[in-house]
Amino acid sequence: MKTTFCLLLMLTQSLLQAQDIKVTSGFVQRFENFYSEFVEGRNVDVWLPKGYNTTEKYAVIYMHDGQMLFDATTTWNKQAWEVDEVAGKLNADGKVKKFIVVGIWNIAAKRHPEYFPQKPYESLTAVQKDTITAQLQKAGRTKESFNPYSDLYLKFLVSELKPFIDKRFSTAKDKDNTFIAGSSMGGLISLYAICEYPEVFGAAACISTHWPGIFAVENNPIPDAFYAYMRKKLPNPKSNRIYFDYGDQTLDALYPPLQKMADSVMVEKGFTSDNWQTKFFPGKNHSEEAWAERLSIPMEFLLKK
Q1: Which CATH superfamily groups domain 2-303?
Q2: How many Å is the Cα radius of gyration of the chain?
Q3: What is the domain partition of the chain in residue ranges?
Q4: DSSP one-letter string for 143-172
Q5: pTM for this structure?
Q6: Which residues face 31 on adjacent strands?
Q7: How far, in Å, are 58, 112, 191, 305 from residue 132 at the CA level?
Q8: Nearby residues of 252 by Cβ (< 8 Å), 6 or more positions away
Q9: What are the tens digits of pLDDT across the range 103-133?
Q10: What does the pLDDT read at residue 141?
Q11: Lowest mean pLDDT among 9-23, 51-65, 103-117
């Protein structure tokens, strides 16, 4: 009863606050300060393709860092993923499943603890955790002891946001039409999501995945903790698919050797070209502009018919 009431409350509040924003293709409905019992409320943007209608069922891609997806004039660095352009073209071409995109805004001060995979972190020793806290404090990502709560963030996505989206829009609700994607820390939380909820998310796109977790590689226990977690929790390759990519400039310069280790775990766990891709983009940096250039590739991977 409580869950039903909360869903109705979210539906009522969000509908009252929804507003259209300008994009180059399709249109976006914004749900401001979307209520959650698990994490702080935040905006949610839902992109719908031109010609969207309720007589069809649409696949859904859930994307993190929602405020960076559509309009470069409104972002902190004046860059955006240009999701509306890429998704609009893919929908129009008809080479993939018809789909909508749900952009979940981050809360800047809480992005790191919400996106950092919680269970791998909890496997670390107290000394290792203290070292990570010190590194993140130095980088200005936290002022207090670092304690990720990505399990709560995923509960928000799975038990609150997805039911709302499925109720409000004409969606195909099954896992084979429900996908998750993000870059950097958003890549990590996308991987974590498909490992924790393989029955909800059929495929994940992890773009420029931030394997270090912090901003140094030497004497960093985090990547090994992620690999150990993957060995235990990667989903069944017969039922789930995963995409990775990376560049080699700016922050992406840290990733090539770490991604190769992750790739070896994927092979070890039985993933093949049928259900997994890792793509390397030499010369590309860690930015929305770089991700926008290649966004059609992971989207086509997720949405192939």
Answers
A1: Alpha/Beta hydrolase fold, catalytic domain (3.40.50.1820)
A2: 18
A3: 2-303
A4: SS-----HHHHHHIIIIIIHHHHHHHS-B-
A5: 0.93
A6: 44
A7: 41, 12, 21, 42
A8: 208, 246, 284, 285, 286
A9: 999 999 999 999 999 999 999 999 999 999 9
A10: 87
A11: 9-23
